[in-house]
Amino acid sequence: MHARTRLLFPLLAVAASSVIAALALLRLSVADVADWYVEVPPGLIDRWLDPTLSAILSLLLGVAGIAVSLRAYAAEHGGTRARAGTRLAAAVLACGTILLAPGGVIPAAGYVFAFVTVALVISAVVLLTVRHPLIGIAVTAVVVVIVATGAHLLDAGSFVPRFVVALGEQLPFIGTTAAYLIVAAALVLWAIGSARPPYGRFAAFVLRRRTWITVLAAACALPYTIARASWLTPWPLFGGSAELFAREPAMLPTGLLLGAAMLTGGVLTLGLILPWGERFSPWLAVIGGRPVPVGLAVIPAVVVAVLFFANGLEFLLTGLENMGREGLPFLEIVLLFPFWLWGPLLALAAWGYAMHRATQPIAPSRPHGREARKSRKVDADRDRERRLAELDALEDREPRPLR
Fold first, then answer.
1. What confidence tens digit (pLDDT) does each residue in 88-116 have?
2. Which of 98, 199, 316, 358 is deepest in the core (most CB within 10 A)?
3. Mean pLDDT computed over every residue of the chain
4. For residue 177, which of 311, 337, 51 has the smallest C-alpha distance?
5. Residue ranges of the chain with pLDDT lower than 50?
6. Comparing C-alpha atoms, which of 278, 261, 258 is closest to residue 214?
7. Do residues 220 and 345 touch, judged by C-beta distance below 8 A?
8. Other C-beta atoms within 10 Å of 336: how many?
9. Residue from 166, 152, 213 nearest 344 by CA
10. pTM above 0.90, yes or no
11. Are 135 and 77 contacting, i.e. CB atoms less than 8 angstroms apart?
């Protein structure tokens, strides 16, 4: 990633660490804040800690985050390579932040990503239509039919306002969790951002095996996607049933939307090893054929990886606590929501992608469509002019005298 981009990560970690420290001080000194924080979904360690001890640990975490982030900023600002000790401290602090982070954000994140997926698809269709109008119009028609059908089944006129209101009510809790996750993600991004050789043994292993790591990470999307897709068959899995869909018509399109979002996440994960993850598809207007900025791929991947890992562990603990009770069995939670595995694998895949981009230059893009035809015509004209010039030179050449 660019040096200026890497410089932002320590600053972002300092800001989020300051929020964590300030909130911890308020929890220790203001009774109303302490009472409010009890309603925040507990994190991994908060399940067993006294609230006062949890606040003290959060205060120490915030102070340590400020110190480590400032040290990282000094290294980046000075243009020097950070010492291994600083990177190790950043990694340890990121893990500690995940353990102390409040939970309960993965459902909201899933719905938000589902809407983001729709926006991404619409943007891609627009760029495709600009470059290839006929194909774009056909694809647009299909997308419009799918979106219109989903909006009708979801009763979008009431669903979207209800979702926005519910999300607004959860914003204070989501914002609290976000401060912790921002610290973890910013420190991880800073640690892997430069991705410059020489690499240690573990980094070299990740770089060599990045294809398999990425494929395994993308495969984590399959169980949930298949379970949601089964709702279109007579044998729906994962709580689906014809009676439920008849009683609550919005349940089917909602489940399919979340399944599509999960599938999109798996496809985007594969982009870390596929050509279109390094260079935008030539089928797209404006950006087609241009190199994909490293940060555009690595930053979202690491943010999602931190979110998945934190809430994947939360899912596992919740499943263990609910073993023997009504609800999803623990094995189904592990298989249908493999965020506990997807998160670490996605972070390693993003690291491998960053190292690959730092060591392997992108091949020049090839013209496509109209540009390809124009390029071939230019090459043919140049070749014809070269042959004509050679013939003119032969005609102007004086004949050799006979011996």
1. 888 888 888 888 888 766 665 666 666 66
2. 98
3. 78
4. 311
5. 403
6. 278
7. yes
8. 18
9. 213
10. no
11. no
